[in-house]
Design brief:
Largest sheet: none
Helix content: over 70%
Number of helices: 5
Structural class: mainly alpha
Strand content: under 5%
Number of strands: 0
Order of helices and strands: HHHHH
Distance between the termini: 60 Å
Radius of gyration: 18 Å
């Protein structure tokens, strides 16, 4: 595996955790450093860190607050 990939994986706890849980990713990253983008996408999807996930969470929070306010009226 290339050195810059190793450093990136060691720096961020979420990457390291995902990497530890999915150790089969090592062979893909060793064979092709371009796989890093796929690795990142999969990690963000699993931990719900995509922009769409964040927007969905914000909308859910707004709906909950709205329903609480309606209940208090």
């Amino acid at each position: 595996m290339e050195y810059f990939l190793q450093q990136k994986l060691k720096e961020d706890k979420k990457f390291k955790k995902y990497f530890d849980e999915n150790s089969n990713q090592v062979k893909y990253l060793n064979r092709n450093p371009e796989y890093y983008k796929t690795f990142m996408r999969d990690m963000k999807e699993l931990y719900k860190e995509r922009t769409t996930d964040k927007l969905s969470d914000a909308l859910n929070t707004i709906e909950i607050v709205s329903s609480i306010i309606d209940t208090l009226k």
